[in-house]
Amino acid sequence: MPSYKAPVEDVLFLLNDVFQMQRHSNLPGFADASPDVVEAVLGEAAKLCEEVLQPLNRVGDLEGCIRHEDGRVTTPKGFKDAVHAFAEGGWIGLAADPEFGGQGLPYTLAAVVNEFSSSANMALAMYPGLTMGAIAALHTHGSPEQKALYLPKMIAGEWTGTMNLTEPHCGTDLGLIKTKAVPQPDGSYKISGTKIFISAGEHDITSNIIHLVLARIEGAPEGVKGISLFVVPKVMVSADGALGERNGVSCGSIEHKMGIHGNATCVMNYDGATGWLVGQENRGLNAMFVMMNEARLGVAIQGLAQSEVAYQNAVAYAKDRIQGRALTGPKAADKAADPIIVHPDVRRNLLQIRAFNEAARALVLYTALKSDVAHRGGDDKERQQADDWLGLMTPVLKGVLTDVGFDNAVRAQQMFGGHGYIAEWGMEQFVRDARIAMIYEGANGIQALDLVGRKLPKDGGRAVMGFFNEVGAYLKEKGEDPALAPYCKPLGGALQHLQQATMWFMNNAMAKPDNAGAGSVDYMHLFGLVAMGYMWVRIVEAAAAKKAAGEGDAAVLDAKLVTARFFMERMLPETAAHLARISAGADSIMALPAEAF
Amino acid sequence: MPSYKAPVEDVLFLLNDVFQMQRHSNLPGFADASPDVVEAVLGEAAKLCEEVLQPLNRVGDLEGCIRHEDGRVTTPKGFKDAVHAFAEGGWIGLAADPEFGGQGLPYTLAAVVNEFSSSANMALAMYPGLTMGAIAALHTHGSPEQKALYLPKMIAGEWTGTMNLTEPHCGTDLGLIKTKAVPQPDGSYKISGTKIFISAGEHDITSNIIHLVLARIEGAPEGVKGISLFVVPKVMVSADGALGERNGVSCGSIEHKMGIHGNATCVMNYDGATGWLVGQENRGLNAMFVMMNEARLGVAIQGLAQSEVAYQNAVAYAKDRIQGRALTGPKAADKAADPIIVHPDVRRNLLQIRAFNEAARALVLYTALKSDVAHRGGDDKERQQADDWLGLMTPVLKGVLTDVGFDNAVRAQQMFGGHGYIAEWGMEQFVRDARIAMIYEGANGIQALDLVGRKLPKDGGRAVMGFFNEVGAYLKEKGEDPALAPYCKPLGGALQHLQQATMWFMNNAMAKPDNAGAGSVDYMHLFGLVAMGYMWVRIVEAAAAKKAAGEGDAAVLDAKLVTARFFMERMLPETAAHLARISAGADSIMALPAEAF
């Protein structure tokens, strides 16, 4: 049976030493997040995730969710109590507005808790996770009455939230949405249509479910410009918050799927359900994007989370399993064989996962801090720069962390040999669960198009220039430092590859957009490598400084330096191959007629 | 529901046009394999796989195998009849010795049928597949009496075969085997011990199962030099072939695993079961290697097979699913959206799978022909060269085709968006089934070690020099041909990378073997890319010649040229990254103490 220990120490090192979170103590909520408070909060979160959520991970996979004939859905044994424990700990509202019962702490801390809970039990963590996204959307675009009615209960975890976008004929292309909204005299709408792939669409955990639903108001323009967002409660809510009749929405069936069995993936039927407009008419995509962007970061974190828990279990196995002898002679001569961690190829695989995990975690936290600055910061320029980073990095994080997170789950599974394929060891569940993160909230190919087609050209390329300037300035300032130079040099080369690729798009994709599409996924991964390389040099800087000052655990800091070197030597060289593929353009890709495939 | 069409045309193009199989008509069995016979044989195989095996693929996944309390195992509905249909078609004995009822046709054709049947139904194809491996081992190392007793029934498919190597505490390190064999006065042995992960170890398909079992004869030396091979029938067989009592071997449990649910993975308990020595005492590994090498090629083909069937279904979906518009403007203006095959990134993914599939198939067939030459050829030198190629390429094929085959199943699944995650679409089954191929018959890390540690240095590097000479001579001869130069040039660069990597090992791994272990998997994939690049230039040569002669389907031949270009531009550049990683050596990998992981 797999186990999990939340990486609290690594998070504290990143927040305190690498990013010096206290620099932001002028932002709302940050003053309350002093280092000792952060440590205590994360310690509590770790405890809940390790002791309550993780033991239910395999149960959830085995039992799955069951839909009954009357449309009710039962979640796996223990899930209900665990979600309530999560809610009662205040974790859903950790970063939410205190006006509605939230704790108002930095979003950065919520991102950390998201990692811990997703490592412990991804299917379970989705119930509060989606609720947090729905809270964010309602908080930004809901009317004062809507906020007052829904947010306190959702923040308290008494009700959960969902997002309803996809229909059988459209997922990526939301302009094709058919679900209809018919205005009623009382200002409400009657919603009718079918939504599919609705995570947590129906369950037995809470007394109500607040659905956020994209639909087209009768007579609205075609395409994405005619889509509005509605809030549709499963059970009608009176003005005083009391529950009334069932609304006209029900779960028609649940999907049998590869993984995340503990979370019901529902077909939701809206049969004249009563809903209320959220935000402006025909601006529904805009409103939903608040939830989608938050969800995309959340999904990125799921990729990291599965990679982390898979790594931990692979390490434990590699230290325990004896098989064969070290190439350089026996290391455990008293045993029949050496533990497999003596083998270079086993270590190579472990380090490859770890070098990703630690940099990805840094990138998540750095981006989460930017998100806090963007949403809570005072200075216009600082806020704009933070928002630029957030917009640029959201598709990179979602695409790269879930692609690599999945690969790493597969890699960790491989360390187990045949045992990795057997359900009871739990490794194959990590693989199956991690797989969905590459698909939902915008398949990764769509993330790459968002990056290349929208985020790069936006505001005349301001965001990407800001990224180049930040990394470039860092390299200029620190590149001569002998302790940092061995790390800065390869990063400088990788940054050049990214700049060349960006330039190539500017020169070749304006007139021929297929060149952008053909290179988009390579560009996204190239971007991810450079961003993670940047995180590694910042980690090295902090680790070296701490070591020089005689602070911290020397073994832990040394491991950072070695892992950073591994990243530079063995992972960063991939940037050249990405650049070569991008520069190859679209010709060979577009040459064949569709029939020739 | 997924579908499958066997790529008969592509195989015929490879056998007839690219490799000119008829050149080998002097070999036993090849004279019977005239082009029209081959076409007819493969057409029959295709029909069986498409119409009988494939429709049972999803049934097998859903039902799985069931072990009853008495140890009996029931296979999924339809499996028994389908395996018998396969046997009655003569497919198990297609390449087997006519003396025992085989058809004696080239092994190359059996490899093709293996691809078709594994694409159609991998779990089912393993029943005859393992039997063929057991036939090969008994044919090579069995006594005349053993051959006469077992081979005719196995070739006829009346009995199946298994291989029993792994025990709970050892898979890779067979020197740790504990299963005991105690000599009996009648020349037989009593076998006792537990074997795990035994595919098709128990089932209801045939009346007997012939287990080949590795065990240690009482008093034998420790380690791999004390292991012998035994044949242990499930049901005792009298000299006239009649079935008698049950032998002391039974299935203790079956594993719940990620995929290939239709094939029972058994814990086999040997409780004083009667067995007979196969080959020489303490030379069991040697004898088992006949079966393992054949099985490794078979597993490599499974990787290709899952990649092929996943590709076919992804293409069908990409042509059918409409979503969004082409970047260059609507292509299906009469519809609400364009089919997603207009998008460069969708095509890139499809071409990446296809460029692999077609080269991998060529490499499998070329290697299978070498196997036929090695086992049936007359000329000593030719036979030795063929055997060198076979030994060198077996780990490359096993490791590369299963790693990339799995990646491609994931890639094809991704084209389906959310539907790819849902069981009823069948794509996630391909991923789950393909995953095992990276693990069994020697996990891919072991294949890489076999390549670098054994196959490279063997006979003073004769095999790898032979490979370099063959590809180098080809490039020298054809590299100036204007039709081939654009393909030969990148291959020449990639070959140099491989040669540099080989040289790097010679210079750096003798004194420090960890350098070999640290670079072994990169080297294996680098080797695979060069070998597939070599296949592509040979395919291009044949396609260009055919086109120039006005023969064949021009659209098919054009697609070969475009796909080859895609391979050279977008897949071969990876060789540089592999070389960079290999040259980085083992330092950062070995630096950390085990506790630091």
Brief overview, please?
Two copies of one chain form a homodimer. Chain A has 17 helices and eleven strands.
Structural key phrases:
two-stranded antiparallel sheet; Butyryl-Coa Dehydrogenase, subunit A, domain 1; 3-methylmercaptopropionyl-CoA dehydrogenase (chains A, B); alpha+beta; 12% strand; FAD (chains A, B); AcylCoA_DH/oxidase_NM_dom_sf (chains A, B); five-stranded mixed barrel; Butyryl-CoA Dehydrogenase, subunit A, domain 2; homodimer; 56% helix; flavoprotein (chains A, B)
Q: What's the name of the CATH homologous superfamily of the domain at 8-65 and 74-150 in chain A?
A: Acyl-CoA dehydrogenase/oxidase, N-terminal domain
What's the helix count of chain A?
17
Uncertain runs of chain A = none
Distance between the termini of chain A: 44 Å
The assigned structural class of chain A equals alpha+beta
Largest sheet of chain A: 5 strands, mixed, barrel
Radius of gyration of chain A: 24 Å
SSE arrangement of chain A, N to C: HHHEEHHHEEEEEEEEEHHHHHHHHHHH
CATH topology of the domain at 8-65 and 74-150 in chain A: Butyryl-Coa Dehydrogenase, subunit A, domain 1
Q: Can you give the mean pLDDT of chain A?
A: 97
CATH architecture of the domain at 8-65 and 74-150 in chain A: Orthogonal Bundle
What oligomeric state best describes the polypeptide chains here? homodimer
Largest inter-chain contact set: A-B, 93 and 93 residues
Strand proportion of chain A: 5-15%
The level of helicity of chain A is 55-70%
Count of distinct strands of chain A: 11
Adjacency order of strands in the biggest sheet of chain A: 4-5-11-7-6
CATH C-level label of the domain at 8-65 and 74-150 in chain A: Mainly Alpha
